[in-house]
Each structure stands twice: as C-alpha cells, then as structure tokens.
Design goal:
Blueprint lengths: L6 H8 L24 E2 L5 H13 L1 E14 L2 E14 L4 E10 L4 H13 L1 H8 L6 H7 E5 L4 E3 L2 E10 L5 E7 L6 E8 L4 E12 L15 E2 L25 E10 L4 E9 L4 E9 L14 E2 L6 E5 L2 E8 L2 E7 L3 H10 L3
Length: 348
C-alpha cells in the first residue's frame, strides 16, 4: 500500500454520503434540559428499544426514502440529496438501490454510474450508515432517550418521536420517528448540538410484507471471523496490535479479516461500538513495498511529518498511515485526536 490513501480506507469514507457491557440495567440519568415537553425514557420503553434493535433484520418491508447528507469535507461544504429504495426480507437479507439524485442533478450516464457505485456499497449503507441500536446493553449504558408527547405521521404510519444523545461527551443528537408497531425507524435526523443538520433519512413510502419477486437482495457474504487467540486459522501470519486506548463507552464488538482487492493484501478489522456509533481499527501488517513517503493528496493533511494522514468528512474522521513499517487505519465519528491515540496505542 504505497499510496497516500488506501483503497480500503477510501471505500469506508466514500460510503458516507463509518470494559464490560454492564448488567443490562437501564440508566437514563443525564443533566440535559428536556426540550419540547418530552420526558426521559424509563424501563417501560424497553420493549420499543428492543424492537428498534431487532427491526432491521426481523421486519419484512419495502420502501422509498429521502436521504440528505450535509457534510464538510475538510472544511468544504457538500450537500447531497437522494431518493433510494430499500427492502428487507425479515430474516437478514436486504436491498438498497439509488432511485434518483435530487442534488446534484445528474445526467442519465452519471446517474447510472452512481447507481452502480451505490450498489457496491449497499452493505455499508444498510449496516453502518443508518441509525441503529446495535447493542442494546451498551446503548442503555451510554445514551439518554427523551420521548415526546403525541405522535407524528411518517409514510402513512403513526410514529413515536424520540431524541437520542450520548450521556457523556455528546457532540450530536438524533431525532427519531419510530413505528411502535414494529420498531422501524422511519425518520432519523442527525444534527449537531446547535441544531445544524448533518444527515436526514426519511421514508416517503412504506409497504409491510411486500412481494419480493423483483427484488435483488444484497449477497450475504460476511467477512471472515478472526479468533484473536489463534489468528493463523484465518490466514493472518503477521503480528498485529489491538488498541489499548478507546474513547469512553466503546467496547470491542467484532473481529474479522477483510481483503483489499487493490493489492490482494489481508487486513485485520476490529469493530468497536458504544451501542449506536461504530469505530473501526484496521491493521494491514508490514509494508511489502515502499512506504508513504512522497505520496500526497490534497484531501489529507499531514498530522505527523512522518506517515500519518487525517481526512475529515462531516462527523467522520479517518486516520491512516504507516507507523514503524506497519499499515494502520482508524475510522469513526470521533475527534481526530481520539483516533490518533487509538492508532498509537495499538502499536508496539
């Protein structure tokens, strides 16, 4: 990997627009003022939260939704507005298709190219981009939930409105409209604490238990699991580190091996979560040819004169480079210094 941006790192970023779990008891003690007359969630809402965690993989549906991304790419504003179709069969298979680009307006050829690109990214879009309760015990440990009175209509469904925000160190919040009948999040508005929109995903049409005759579901080919105690079983024959520093509330969730098709290399991929957000650490082992010296890219800034570069895309950061001859990448919605500390802590 002798480029300033690895294909693997760029694939994750381009898909945007990336201690003990406790005893499972609920805790929603926060110091924020409750706006709009809402009330903090209590144990009575555990069934709804559980349904939200399960719905993407247990509810059978097809729909069309509006997706807005309001991002700064290293300080340069960027807005995209798209319409996409999404289906899930209720047993884990899914489909995400780009229907149209509202902003920017694209010609037929450009739209077809973007549709092909989005099809290749379907797994990331469905599994990583959208708001999810990915780990309910961690969610209950790290997040505060505010429920607002009344109901709101989204795609013809009467929904409960929730506000979700980290209990500690919050820099954004999610305003959600959830179908209480099945737990589907039909509208998710991500904004910073000043109310500035970051992203919006909102269903405009929804059909439950539809006919899937013409639906092409995304292939279910998960990455190869990795046993950290015996990595040779997964074909990993180089020494790799695991981060000793993690941001508050994050815990290891999955360990996998992924392939970088650009150079046939194998990477160790560790995913950490706080119940909603994901952090990825990838270790590609020692460089086989050359290094990053002399490679530059205007979208990356040199954080260290040596090898590490940082890219910002809205709330996402990527820290990627060569340190001590080792190839490493960290990706997540965290401050740059946290990702760099995480990266550094994984090295000898």
């Amino acid at each position: 990997m002798n480029r300033s941006r690895s294909t693997l790192a760029v694939a994750i970023v381009a898909s945007l627009g990336l201690a003990s779990c406790g005893d499972g008891q609920t805790s929603f003690e926060v110091n924020n003022d409750v706006s709009k007359g809402g009330t903090y969630a209590s144990t009575t809402q555990l069934p709804l939260l559980q349904a939200m965690a399960e719905a993407p993989f247990t509810v059978s549906y097809c729909g069309e939704r509006r997706v807005e991304q309001h991002l700064d790419v290293d300080g340069v504003p960027s807005v995209t507005i798209q319409r996409e179709g999404v289906c899930a069969d209720g047993s884990g298979a899914f489909s995400v298709r780009l229907l149209d680009s509202i902003q920017p307006i694209l010609g037929p050829t450009e739209l077809q190219m973007l549709q092909a690109l989005q099809s290749a990214r379907a797994g990331f879009l469905y599994l990583e981009r959208d708001f999810r309760i990915r780990d309910l015990p961690l969610f209950l440990q790290n997040y505060a939930v505010v429920t607002f009175p009344g109901a709101v209509d989204v795609a013809g469904r009467s929904c409960v409105e929730l506000e979700v925000q980290r209990q500690e160190g919050a820099d954004r919040r999610y305003l959600l409209a959830v179908d209480p009948a099945n737990g589907l999040v039909l509208r998710s508005r991500e904004e910073d604490l000043n109310g500035q929109l970051i992203s919006l995903v909102e269903f405009e049409l929804l059909q439950l238990d539809p006919d899937f005759t013409d639906v092409e579901f995304h292939p279910t080919t998960p990455d190869q699991p990795l046993d950290l105690e015996d990595p040779d079983l997964a074909g990993i024959h180089f020494e790799f580190g695991t981060p000793r520093f993690l941001p508050e509330g994050f815990q290891l969730r999955t360990t996998e091996v992924v392939d970088d098709a650009s150079d046939s290399s194998r990477w160790v991929k560790l995913a950490y979560g706080d119940g909603v957000e994901q952090l990825f650490f990838l270790h590609g082992g020692p460089l086989q040819r050359g290094g990053m010296a002399g490679n530059t890219n205007a979208r990356f800034q040199d954080f260290d004169q040596d090898v590490v570069r940082v890219l910002r895309v809205g709330p996402w950061s990527v820290a990627q480079g060569e340190v001590g001859g080792q190839r490493v990448i960290t990706v997540g919605k965290r401050a740059e210094h946290e990702l760099l500390l995480m990266l550094e802590s994984a090295l000898p």
